[in-house]
Design a protein that fits this description.
Elements: H1 3-18, H2 22-29, H3 33-40, H4 49-58, H5 63-67, H6 70-73
Length: 80
């Protein structure tokens, strides 16, 4: 799994756990729905940290909480 897939999976899991739609997430985060959909559908392969932070703000969580998840724990080391 790559970082973009991990971010996508984490966002989808959080929405599912909180029973919110992507459109509701965009409203909570004050982001255009297209910004979130670009991450989810792979158009944005390298989402900016500020975008992820804004999503976290909308979900009332910290970046640490966002990245403290199995999706990120299982990523392979990029530089060996």
């Amino acid at each position: 799994m790559d970082i973009a897939s991990a971010v996508r999976d984490r966002i989808l899991r959080l929405c599912s756990e909180r029973n919110i739609t992507i459109n509701k997430l965009s409203s909570l985060s004050a982001l255009p729905p297209s910004s979130i959909k670009n991450i989810l559908y792979g158009k944005s392969r390298n989402p900016k940290l500020i975008t992820i932070k804004t999503i976290c703000d909308g979900l009332d969580m910290t970046l640490g909480e966002f990245f403290s998840a199995p999706e990120f724990d299982s990523l392979e080391q990029q530089i060996k």
